[in-house]
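Repro case for the chain-ordering regression, as requested:
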Amino acid sequence: QSVLTQPPSVSAAPGQKVTISCSGSRSNIGSNYVSWYQQRPGTTPKLLIYENRKRPSGIRDRFSGSTSGTSATLGITGLQTGDEADYYCGTWDFSLTPVYVFGTGTKVTVL
Amino acid sequence: EGQLVESGGGLVQPGGSLRLSCAASGFSVNWNYMNWVRQVPGKGLEWVSVIRIAGDTHYTDSVKGRFIISRDNSKDTLYLQMNNLRADDTAVYYCTRSMNYHDSSGFETNDAFDIWGLGTMVTVS
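-- result from build under test --
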């Protein structure tokens, strides 16, 4: 089953912006909504973005999502030390039977 | 806001079985897609299985024929029966809810995992 491809790591100084890419295919990102999850060290994953670009209640607008074709992007502006975490994209893939696919994960480091 | 609490993890020998439970509070398990997701410590997330609102179930290829997802609506509890366990099943297992909402076009959607349990560790050794 397919996996979505993300860069292993990105980094930036506090206050700066980072973007994380998520590459998939027509059967997953190209056809279904993308979600993004944040997992701080030692904690449970937390939903950051759903329906490609919407934020659940309580998620700051420093986090943004977008899609284009078979790719998705997460943006984090005004980077803070608390943003150091692993970030995963995810979406359904209905090409055969329904399966949910996660990205490979990206470690964000605040320099 | 709902909550999920997993239990049932532990140490099991290869070929053995375990049943994980996930108790939901604040919502009903039969009105949402409910999933199991696992994570090998230090590694990425892997979706394992879903039981959809209609009751149909789906699995990742590596567990097909070995794992069974089910739910007890009266107890608001999700289960994962794991049989013929292998060393590569070793992971933290999370119970998650797919958020049920209407998208921008008004279609009912069940995708993003909005509630996660704390996880239960399964070690096959």
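Ordering looks correct now. Residues 4 and 24 of chain A are 5 Å apart (CA to CA).
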